[in-house]
Each structure stands twice: as structure tokens, then as C-alpha cells.
């Protein structure tokens, strides 16, 4: 059976009248006369073969036929408005907007950006580094990298990398006044704490890490605290103490020698991982697809490097 669209002006008049339950207010909204609204309603009623409104003592009311069609009609007009807004926008260049946590942006993504720009000079990346995850349903962000359990309803989810934590510090602390040779030596050093609100129940803190190694620290909760993982790592680089850091974020600084891992076998895996997420109801642009492909390759290279450390 061939499906055809009813007259758009008549549908528009009916939706406005159904929302206001008043022909005059609908006419004001549409910038026409009440008579024109009434004429469009009659046209629509003739086509569908039944009344859409009845007049009662309390005013205009929808019939069952009219009432059942209003929600779908309203949704349809909202989609038309969205499409109209999109068509009015100037042509976009090849852009990809990405939402990431500040620590991941500064310590993992940014050191790799030159590689992406070399491979894709035609694509502009708009990076938003916020503590709170962006709402991908609003259409302002193409994709996000999230650290979490991987359960993100309504989104397409691909795992990038797992995570571990381990102690890291500046090389100068290893052979300073209080050399670090074994976990017990940490008692003589300031402990740096990662207080980023990532909600990971499996990530150990210093008290848990030391207890697992049989170390009775007098106060493992003392020391400087940082609400961003990137700040924690920078504090360790500057020699302010020993940090229990996410290894993924510390990798570049470990590879460059700005950080060292006093106990390479002291890393502990955590339950959370990094995921790239995209809206399920909006197909990705070719530029977003290219970026995700590059991101996955970088993650594989990262894992291979981690296995060699």
C-alpha cells in the first residue's frame, strides 16, 4: 500500500490547535486568521473521515482520533525543526569533537596528536577536557573516551585499553637521602594520592597497596591529594613524593625517564578500562570514523609498549 503525506499546512494547523485547544491562539502562533485554521482543520477532517475536535461546555476538546495522533505528529514536527536547523547551519569543515577526562587528554592523548595531524591534516579535532562526562545525546559531541565499567546504555561502546596502577616517582628520589629499594622504604617518603572521582571501586589506595605487601605504615593516608590524575603525575615528576598512579597515564613519562617505577612488579590491575563511546542513534561522520580507527591503533601500540616495560 502506498503511503502518502497529508497536507502539511493542515497538519501544522491541527497540531497547534491541539496544543492550545483554541483556534484563535493557534492562529496567533501561525500568523494566520482563526478562519484559516478552522478551514485547514475541516480539510483534514474531510480527508481522514471523522472529527478531530468537539465543542463542549468547557471548551474545545480532542476526539479519540485526534488525541491518538497528536504525540506522533508533535514528534514529527520536532524532527522537522531539527532538520531545518541543521540545513540552516553553514557547511562544516571536517571536524570531530571529542570529550575526554583532563588527565587522559594531557597525559595520553595530547602526546600523540602530532601523529594524527600528520595522518589526517584535513581533520580538525575539537577536544573538550571536562571532569564531568559530556551528554552525547545533545549532538554537540561526536564521541567520548570514558574510563569506567563499560556499561553505557544508548551508546556504541568499544574498549580501548585496560588499566593498572603502580608507584612512580622522580629519578632523584631513588638515590636521595632516603633511597627507595623496597616497599618498606616508602615509609620515609611523602605519599601522593589520586583523588580523581572516577568511581572505580577496584582501584587500590596507598593503604591497600602497602597492606598487600605486608608494610605497616604509620599513616598511609597522609600526603598531598589531587583531584586530577594528570596533576598527581606532574607532582611526582617534580619530586614532591611517590604517587600511586594509573600506568596508562604515566607511560609517556616513564618512557622518557621523567618518572621511574621503583617496583616494576608492584602494579595491580583494576576493573575499569578506557572505552570510546559514540551515539547509537546518529551515524558517525567519516572524520569521526577515521579518528576512532586511529585511536584504536594507538591503543594497540600502547598495549604493546606496556608489555615491553
From TrEMBL:
Q: Which UniProt keywords apply?
A: DNA-binding, Transcription, Transcription regulation
Q: Which GO terms describe its biological process?
A: DNA-templated transcription
Write down the NCBIfam families for this protein, in alphabetical order.
Answer: PRK11139.1 (NF008352)
Q: Which family does it belong to?
A: Belongs to the LysR transcriptional regulatory family.
Protein name, entry field: Transcriptional regulator GcvA
GO molecular-function term, one example from the UniProt record: DNA-binding transcription factor activity
Highest taxon, organism lineage:
Bacteria
Q: Where is the HTH lysR-type domain?
A: 6-63
Q: Which PANTHER family match?
A: HTH-TYPE TRANSCRIPTIONAL REGULATOR (PTHR30537), HTH-TYPE TRANSCRIPTIONAL REGULATOR TRPI (PTHR30537:SF74)
User: Sorted alphabetically, which Pfam families does this protein's record hold?
Assistant: HTH_1, LysR_substrate
InterPro entries in the record, alphabetically?
A: LysR-type_TF_proteobact-type, LysR_HTH_N, LysR_subst-bd, WH-like_DNA-bd_sf, WH_DNA-bd_sf
Amino acid at each position: 500500500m502506498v503511503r502518502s503525506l497529508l497536507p502539511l499546512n493542515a497538519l501544522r494547523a491541527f497540531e497547534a490547535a491541539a496544543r492550545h485547544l483554541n483556534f484563535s491562539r493557534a492562529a496567533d502562533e501561525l500568523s494566520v486568521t482563526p478562519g484559516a485554521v478552522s478551514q485547514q482543520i475541516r480539510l483534514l477532517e474531510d480527508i481522514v473521515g471523522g472529527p478531530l475536535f468537539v465543542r463542549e461546555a468547557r471548551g474545545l476538546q480532542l476526539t479519540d482520533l485526534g488525541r491518538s495522533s497528536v504525540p506522533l505528529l508533535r514528534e514529527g514536527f520536532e524532527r522537522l525543526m531539527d532538520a531545518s536547523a541543521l540545513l540552516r547551519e553553514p557547511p562544516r569543515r571536517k571536524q570531530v569533537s571529542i570529550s575526554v577526562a583532563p588527565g587522559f587528554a594531557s597525559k595520553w592523548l595530547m602526546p600523540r596528536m602530532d601523529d594524527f595531524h600528520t595522518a589526517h591534516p584535513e581533520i580538525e579535532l575539537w577536544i573538550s577536557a571536562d571532569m564531568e562526562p559530556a551528554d552525547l545525546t545533545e549532538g554537540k559531541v561526536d564521541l567520548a573516551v570514558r574510563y569506567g565499567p563499560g556499561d553505557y546504555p544508548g551508546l556504541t561502546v568499544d574498549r580501548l585499553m585496560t588499566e593498572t596502577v603502580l608507584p612512580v616517582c622522580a629519578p632523584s628520589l631513588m638515590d636521595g637521602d632516603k633511597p627507595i629499594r623496597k616497599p618498606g622504604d616508602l615509609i620515609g617518603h611523602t605519599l601522593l594520592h589520586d583523588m580523581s572521582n572516577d568511581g572505580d571501586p577496584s582501584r587500590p589506595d596507598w593503604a591497600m597497596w602497602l597492606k598487600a605487601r605486608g608494610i605497616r605504615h604509620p599513616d598511609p593516608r597522609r600526603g598531598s591529594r589531587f583531584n586530577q590524575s594528570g596533576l598527581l603525575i606532574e607532582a611526582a615528576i617534580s619530586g614532591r613524593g611517590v604517587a600511586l598512579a594509573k600506568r596508562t597515564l604515566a607511560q609517556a613519562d616513564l618512557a622518557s625517564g621523567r618518572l621511574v617505577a621503583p617496583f616494576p612488579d608492584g602494579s595491580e590491575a583494576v576493573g575499569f578500562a578506557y572505552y570510546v563511546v559514540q551515539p547509537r542513534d546518529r551515524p558517525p561522520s567519516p572524520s569521526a570514523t577515521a579518528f576512532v580507527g586511529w585511536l584504536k591503533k594507538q591503543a594497540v601500540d600502547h598495549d604493546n609498549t606496556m608489555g615491553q616495560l
